[in-house]
Known about the structure:
Blueprint: E1 6-9, H1 13-17, H2 19-25, E2 32-36, H3 44-49, E3 56-64, E4 67-75, E5 78-83, H4 88-97, E6 101-104, H5 128-141, E7 148-151, H6 158-172, H7 177-185, E8 187-188, E9 191-194, E10 197-200, E11 206-208, E12 213-217, E13 231-234, H8 238-261, H9 264-267, H10 273-277, H11 280-299, H12 303-317, H13 326-329, H14 333-349, H15 358-364
Parallel strand pairs: 1-2, 1-6, 2-5, 3-11, 6-7, 7-8, 12-13
Antiparallel strand pairs: 3-4, 9-12, 10-11
Amino acid sequence: MTVTPVVQFGTSRFLQAHADLFLAEGTPTRAITVVQSTGAASRAQRLAAFTAPGGYPVRIRGQQDGQVIDEERRVSAVTRTLSTASDWAELSRVVIEEAQFILSNTSDSGFDPQPDDTKPEPMQSQSYPAKLFHLLAARHAAGGKTLTIFPMELIPDNGAVLKARVLEIAAANSAAADLTDWLQSCIWANSLVDRIVSEPIEPVGAVAEPYALWAIEAQPGLLAPTEHPAIQIVDKLETIERLKLHILNLGHTAMVAFWMENNGPDEAPDAIVRDLLSGPVGERLTQVMEAEVIPGFAAHGMEAEARTYLATTLDRFANPFLDHRIADIAQNHSQKLDRRIGAFLTWVRDIAPDHKAPVLDGLMAPEPAKGE
């Protein structure tokens, strides 16, 4: 069996078309052990298909730099699959003897504490951080070197959050000082990931847009698991987080607001982003981006980055293969207004109090009561 320097917790189609693809295409290529941490029997077929001869397909479909892309790539980096429910002994051996990097994407709730997390032995009912603690403790006990841990869950400061959870579990287990120091010495990377993975290919594989990003915040000793155009090591994640939140996400939310103002929920309940982009809603979006959003980024010295990111975002919105329903984006609209538009206005006016944004201000204004 091939030695696997990467141990990955999670089997999602996002990982299949994101990190797994990068590790297969990057320099150097990296062999992966994929770990199913839920123990769900319904995913056994998917787990077995990861290591099929010839790998599994990732179909890249969309628009980039004005050009339509429709191509298939193969991922053959996954050479072993295990389950925490049935393969704990082998998983422990792999983490002790082979692992250099640990990746995870266990859902946004994957870090949530579970009742059995403080038990002294590993259990299937434990959360991912608790299972990780027991695996790292076994590596330490065997004299293994520290390693680098890359959580990819959509949680701010995900590396710091995961480290804190593992150390809490270590304290609950009365871990010796040398183990705690060893855990502290591992590299816990904060990262941000982005790619729309629109549909699965059964039993394993996925359809994804051309755009892809795995941004990793720099820290001493940190190295990416491979070199790939989609992997960036950055001084701070804030710049990328602001671009994503206040251009891509803000753009989606502004389109929802314009669609609602034009009676879209009644007249076009099944409208998709691509079609709206080429009509009045898209025209208003372009105007607000140029007149209000780009100047806000310029106030922070980020105009060039914002213009480049906006062009990429409009390409993504125009993806001819992605039927992204505006009604789906409209869910939890009021909360999204606050986080995406309200937070943008606050961020800009903290340093430019006179920044004019009449359209965005109007979207944030409460609706008048009936009769007013």
